[in-house]
Design brief:
Strands 4-3-5-6-7-8-9-10 form an 8-stranded mixed sheet, with helices on both faces. A 5-stranded mixed sheet has the order 12-11-13-15-14. Strand 1 (157-161) and strand 2 form a beta hairpin. It has helices spanning 2-5, 8-19, 24-43, 72-78, 83-94, 105-114, 131-149, 168-184, 213-217, 282-285, 293-300, 312-320, 334-346, 373-377, and strands spanning 157-161, 164-167, 189-192, 196-197, 203-211, 224-231, 234-242, 247-252, 256-259, 262-263, 276-279, 305-307, 326-330, 350-352, 364-368. The radius of gyration is 25 Å and the shape is globular. It has 14 helices and 15 strands. By secondary structure, it is an alpha+beta fold. The longest helix is centred in the first third of the chain and has 20 residues, at 24-43.
């Protein structure tokens, strides 16, 4: 193996791998380069570019492809490193089912080489995304926001549009989240309100660094850091942290929802006339003629309490926590509601559009405790 490590093509491919891959096509290209070099060096023979693979082969290659010239027994001897681990890595790195066709023989050879190369060429370890790992990151993001919140007299504010603002706190929080999440979880892309979308959007972090920026800039308490993990259009993890309130909400798909470590669930209110509801007016900020005013008046006449907190992420968490019985708003973006919608759903809420279609619809979202769903839906 020592001669193999000095191969300049191999070193170049490994360095590129260490800098992070941008797409499945990069993985396929580097895999072919590294596999070809390692097999040729190990077996001291030539291998052409037509290497066959199949996800059905337990040895991670297509033994029926005569062009590679190696039988199952020969490659099996070389391909004995971390097969289960590697298949899992490939799936989690890009989350495309078809990527399993880039079989585990690829990363088996990366690992084989990595056992002998210098630390500078080592593949950085990838963490598994979990609520535990995410909480530390989101709380740190909240601390960054809070440091700006405590010094509002010096806060720099920029107007993105006539009724939309961004502060230096938004930028700082998103910059931290983007850098940290991308470094610890390179298998996922990133979509932030301020920086936009990275290249890999099939599986991604969806981030609103400060949901409720205007409230934040005025010294109010209802604003939050919102982070969600979306995999193949399904929200899998969500965290909403309100530092000024010291409330941390989180959820994992099919596992439940928590506030400050305690399980939460929606309210038991069954009558709309006794309900407390929340809404927002992003549609007015966007100058929509078909806005929320008439809908609000209809519902306000039929309910006991109405609230406007200024953060859709927190509105959804309050539905989850039973503090309000329903929330609706229109003309939002996915990063406003992704985490909150999962938290509400895992706490037992119904999540639909204004016609009752189940799902997360940023342009029309209705979240209820389920018990008053039909009653409020008729007023939408």
């Amino acid at each position: 193996m020592n001669d193999l490590i000095t191969d300049p093509k191999l070193i170049s491919a490994m360095e590129e791998l260490g800098r992070g891959l941008k797409s499945p096509s990069d993985l396929a290209r580097l895999s072919r380069e590294i596999l070809k070099i390692t097999v040729q060096a190990s077996l001291n023979t030539e291998m052409d570019d037509h290497i066959g693979y199949t996800k059905h082969s337990p040895d991670g290659y297509n033994s029926g492809n005569s062009r590679n010239g190696y039988n199952r027994k020969t490659l099996k001897g070389l391909n004995c490193y971390c097969q289960v681990f590697t298949t899992d890595v490939l799936y989690n790195r890009y989350n495309y089912a078809t990527d399993i066709t880039y079989t585990h023989i690829h990363l088996n050879y990366f690992i084989l080489i990595n056992k002998h190369v210098s630390p500078a060429l080592s593949i950085p370890p990838k963490m598994t995304a979990s609520l535990t790992n995410l909480e530390k990151i989101v709380r740190e993001a909240g601390s960054i926001a809070l440091s700006h919140y405590k010094n509002l007299e010096h806060l720099k504010i920029t107007q993105k549009s006539p009724r939309d603002f961004v502060t230096e706190a938004d930028i700082a929080v998103e910059s931290y989240l983007k850098e940290t999440l991308s470094k610890q979880f390179p298998q996922f892309g990133f979509w932030g309100e301020e920086s936009g979308q990275s290249e890999n959007q099939a599986s991604r972090w969806v981030v609103d660094p400060i949901d409720g920026t205007h409230s934040f800039s005025k010294g109010q308490y209802f604003w939050a850091v919102s982070v969600a993990l979306e995999v193949n259009q399904e929200i899998m993890l969500g965290a909403v942290y309100a530092p000024a309130l010291n409330d941390y909400y989180c959820a994992e798909k099919n596992k439940g929802a928590w506030k400050n470590g305690v399980p939460i669930s929606v309210s038991t209110e069954q009558v709309l006339s006794s309900a407390m509801v929340a809404t927002g007016f992003a549609c007015i900020r966007s100058y929509l003629k078909e806005n929320n005013l008439q809908r609000f008046c209809r519902i306000a006449e039929q309910t006991t309490g109405q609230r406007r907190f200024g953060s859709a992420a927190l509105d959804l968490c309050m539905v989850a926590d039973g503090q309000v019985d329903a929330f609706w708003e229109q003309e939002l973006n996915l990063y406003d509601i992704a985490a909150g919608a999962l938290i509400a759903a895992e706490a037992g809420a119904t999540i639909t559009d204004f016609k009752g279609n189940k799902g997360v619809f940023p342009k029309q979202i209705l979240a209820t405790n389920g018990r008053i769903f039909e009653q409020i839906l008729s007023l939408m």
